[in-house]
UniProtKB/TrEMBL annotation, chains A, B:
CDD domains: Trans_IPPS_HT (cd00685). The keyword Kinase does not apply. GO terms for biological process: terpenoid biosynthetic process. Gene3D superfamilies: Farnesyl Diphosphate Synthase (1.10.600.10). The keyword Metal-binding applies. One of its GO terms (molecular function) is metal ion binding. GO terms for cellular component: cytoplasm. This is Farnesyl diphosphate synthase.
Length: 299, 299
């Protein structure tokens, strides 16, 4: 199915809005230390599909969240995501030279600056989220900061990366693979949805559970499709080194389920995501379209 | 002058309290991913003089801040400090093998785990500070999270490290050296004082300015003494590699001012710190003693 033109236009508008927001939330590269600030900006700006901001804005739309608060929350999540890529690409981790079609940060700026830029981006994410003087009241803002910290740390993204690291060359079971991805990429995708929604209101337990189910399904779908693309697309299309998982002997959905079953799983997860949104009716239109997009993307 | 016995006892009590607090605020190393959690605990527990927690508790005492809130704020700052040491010791940064008399985290756990443990400790710091359900109201807690993020990032600690990195082999002016340290170590020492005080109450501008002056003087004194010790003490006493600054051709107070003038500067800064505390009278007794300790320390 083709995305409807209004959705494509909404997406483009969010991406443009986010580029401006991220630009404004990052220190200028004319401010000292200039090299560090240049590396932070290089890592964040002009790159990526902004999937996490799109999820935040789409979830915010369910509850009519104000745009300024959404831009701030989405920028915070995107900075966490960007810093994790900088560190993940470093020689002691994945040792990758290409990201979003550009040299990785440590190739461009050196390892020490890449390490510091990643560290400073994590701080900046919490700073941006804490600094808002918008519609979000302090108690809700503290809750949002807590969710972001939890999703980023050892029980979220960093924990998933550690499991990933320890699993190279090992035979994982499907539940183990799922748990790894639930942390490594799922936690941040989930918090994107939650922070977007929380920009609108404090959630009822029912709303929270529905969004959690949606985010869990979409998060896993995202990873399954990532594995499919790593096995089928070329580096030029992906903007990063393709076939790397197989070369690194990393367990993937494709290596465990095969290509066709992986694709079928992605479609099933999209349907699960749609089902979770039923209570919200038409208000969740954008979240529904994003689930479609995540499953159908080519890069 | 000798520290009074009651102060020494207070210090020991805070250190014991902090060890327990940090232990409780860190995930268990029996929880998966176990290796990551073990590295985080190794980096934080059983080490260091806990200067930052001592500053937080001493500042809290000025405003009768509740202990539970202080332990939480102090633990957050100490986790930021600990993560910065883990990353700073890595081969692409200072490449140091010894810290607090033990092998550094990357020597003990490998570089990838060290990188992730540092990243996860930063998240954990914000999580610990955001999670409190103690006497600090949400608006004040947001302000504290903002201060911690600002002190940790590119306009604080990470920025100072970047300037330090860029200055190896260069001739710095004294103001440039001071600016580097004001960010690299000063920002986190200052935020320790501020967070401790904020655990007690929202500060008046006068209180804030006085604490700022105290923290600036103590922060700089701390660094001057560090340089003196690096030039005069042995590795066994320091628990880290001595003489490293000279070997790395890094600008230090000793290389710029000489030993005696550096020692005189440290004493002058201690006096400045004492003067800044005048408005608080006897309530600032512990902060005063800490300024003495920082200047007189032997390691």
């Amino acid at each position: 199915m083709m995305p409807d033109p209004a959705f494509a236009e909404w997406m483009r508008a969010v991406q443009v809005r986010m580029e401006a927001a991220l630009d404004g939330f990052l220190p200028s590269d004319t401010e000292a230390p200039a090299q560090l600030h240049a590396a932070m900006r290089y890592a964040v700006l002009d790159g990526g599909k902004r999937v996490r901001p799109l999820l935040a804005f789409a979830a915010g739309a369910v509850f009519e969240a104000p745009e300024a608060a959404l831009a701030r929350a989405a920028a915070a999540v995107e900075m966490i995501h960007a810093y994790s890529l900088v560190h993940d690409d470093m020689p002691c981790m994945d040792d990758d030279a290409l990201r979003r079609g550009k040299p990785t940060v440590h190739v461009q700026f050196g390892e020490a600056t890449a390490l510091l830029a990643g560290d400073a981006l994590q701080s900046q994410a919490f700073l941006v989220l804490a600094e808002g003087s918008d519609a979000v009241d302090p108690a809700r803002r503290v809750a949002m900061l807590r969710l972001l910290a939890d999703a980023s740390g050892s029980r979220g993204m960093c924990g998933g990366q550690a499991i990933d690291l320890a699993s190279v060359g090992l035979t994982l079971t499907l539940p183990q693979l799922e748990q790894m991805h639930r942390l490594k990429t799922g936690a941040l995708l989930r918090v994107s949805v939650m922070l977007g929604a929380l920009c609108g209101k404090t959630l009822t337990p029912t709303e929270e559970a529905a969004l959690n189910d949606y985010a869990a399904a979409v998060g896993l779908a995202f990873q399954v499709v990532d594995d499919v693309l790593d096995a089928t697309a070329d580096s030029g299309t992906l903007g990063k080194t393709a076939g790397k998982d197989a070369a690194d002997n990393k367990p993937t959905y494709v290596s465990m389920l095969g290509l066709e079953q992986s694709q079928a799983l992605a479609r099933k997860l999209r349907d699960d995501a749609h089902k979770a949104l039923a209570p919200f009716g038409d208000r969740a239109h954008l979240l529904r379209e994003l689930a479609n997009l995540i499953v159908q993307r080519k890069a």
